[in-house]
Amino acid sequence: MADRIFAAVLLAVTIGYAVIAFTVIRAPFQYDPLGPESWPRILSIVAILCLLYILWKPDAIGFDMTRQVWFRLGAAVVLLLAYSDLYEPLGFILSTILFGTIMALMLGAPRLRAVGFGIAAGVFGWLLCVTLMDLNLPEGALYEAVVDSFQQTEEEGAS
Amino acid sequence: MDAVLSGLATGFSVALDPFNLMLVLVGCFVGTLIGALPGLGPINGVAILLPIAYGLGFQPEAALILLAGIYYGAEYGGRISSILLNVPGDAGAVMTTLDGNPLARAGQAGRALSLSAVASFVGGTFAVILMSLFAPALAGFAVTFGPADYVALMVFAFASLASLVGKSTVKTLLGATIGLMLATIGIDANTGVPRYTFGIPDILAGIDFLIVVVGLFGMAELLTLVEQQARGTLKSLPVDRSFVTMADLAKSKWTIARSSVIGFFIGILPGTGASVASAVAYGTEKRISDTEGTFGKGDVRGLAAPEAANNAAAGGSMVPMLTLGIPGSGTTAILLGALLMFNIQPGPTMFTQRPEVAWGLVASMYIGNVALLVINLPLVGLFARMLTIPQHYLTPLIAVLAFIGIYTIVGNPHDLFMITMLGVFGWFLRKLDFSLAPIILGFVLGGLFEDNLRRALSISGGDWSILVSNWKSILLYVLALFVVVLPIWLARRARGNAMQDAESH
Lengths: 159, 505
Prior knowledge:
The complex is a heterodimer.
Chain A: H1 2-24, H2 38-56, H3 67-106, H4 111-132, H5 141-158
Chain B: H1 2-15, H2 18-36, H3 42-55, H4 60-85, H5 94-105, H6 109-142, H7 147-164, H8 169-183, E1 186-187, E2 194-195, H9 209-229, H10 246-268, H11 274-289, H12 300-316, H13 318-323, H14 330-341, H15 350-353, H16 355-386, H17 391-410, H18 413-431, H19 437-460, H20 471-504
Antiparallel strand pairs in B: 1-2
Protein name (chain B): TctA protein
Organism (chain B): Salipiger bermudensis (strain DSM 26914 / JCM 13377 / KCTC 12554 / HTCC2601) (Pelagibaca bermudensis)
InterPro entries (chain B): DUF112_TM
């Protein structure tokens, strides 16, 4: 059943892909026998044939997961999305501390150790990647604001 | 022969450079750590660390040496979790659990680990030697390939992929097609027409290879770990002081030799990597040597066979990647993508145009093999301790690494969403028994496949018969057909025999 639903969704996407390939994509002028539309057309036909076969003869795969597992997976995805959303505003260190701590807690780590892990991941990650390996990671709006205000007070003091 | 020796000399002068030598060692060490972690196989390890390696701003040969070391090391380390936990790190290590884990349960974990390290070393070294002999010759031959032959080669690659990888042929084919379709997104290089960009400027140049790789492999792996973690915990067996004996080696020496040959040649087949090689080697060895029915109960030969084969296959799968530009496995597809990011087109001309990269990589594999054996024999206890790192720390760490890598390269928080969503997609695919390697293979080869098809038809002025106009392409199509039909025929015959047996009894 899961197989059929997934194949049906993919089929809808593929038909959209095919419609674009057969109607929209067109080169204004070309000398080659195959234009930019030919290859997507071939691919969409192959994909549709495969999908029809899966719809016709799906494998019997059940998602035999308890509601609890679904809940954890959903929570993990939400956490990841929140992490990507806060990555730049909070900066690497703060967002990693938050994400590492909450994720570890959710997966069953003891409370204090989870906090320790989060702080270690944030601080050591920053030291290792930025200080040692010179990679580019976000400092965070908060940090920048603090630095800016310092510079402003310095400028005011100087003037 | 002269070309091989002078090439190797070039290669070793690159690989023995102190900095590169350090990278080989670091790569092997990190790779073994990653391989030893349960659930994290070579392909995920390379996928997660690729953006970081790219972001460090090394020379192409240095970055490639580092990545190959990680790949190699992970192939080595996979056996540790197979033997001690009975949980294979990836598909290539499944066969190792069959005889490795019973040995460890019988209190001979040390013996099993050291024997498998020796078998891996022999398999790996054998593959590198054959590779340095074959690769230049094959590259020399491949220079004569025209666009039509490349199309045939690609069809052969996907045919062998579809028939040998994954549970369902149709799903593997569909996976490869999804990869090829993803590769069509962006501006068409020949005509400048945008395809499937929907006016979004971020994807005019196509979907970033790194995002697809990290999303489909790294993040999907993370979600799988979350799912499994909620289902129960793992128990590791202790490492004891037992060690491999001369008698074990004498007993398994022919096994190792046979399996190395099998592994190397299966590794060369485009699309098939360590998992197929170790399964075939184990099956063959079981048929030849299992006279007392000890396989599966802790026979040293049953442990040596898949380990020699999967390391030989790791070397073998480098051959088509370096000489033809067609990767032999999912992981080499990622390495190929890495080369493309450095603007190096892998293929027959790489050995002559970028000898420092091609030969440097080969030489680093010689060094890596020795290094792995030296690292692995004394330090196996340390790696084994990695197994006891609780999953609840490991899982968030994967996300942190993946985010660092992607942000460093692309510097755009929008891409962090992309990898998360691709991870969800990849997790669904895995749940539904799709294997992910064909997708990445299709994605990496998509541009090459289309270009060659269009070029071939331009040469012939639109006449499709050019695709079958010379013996090289015809031979490849025949081989492709053979690869698809043979397993079906064998399965039918096996079923027929079983039916006959059932009737006669």
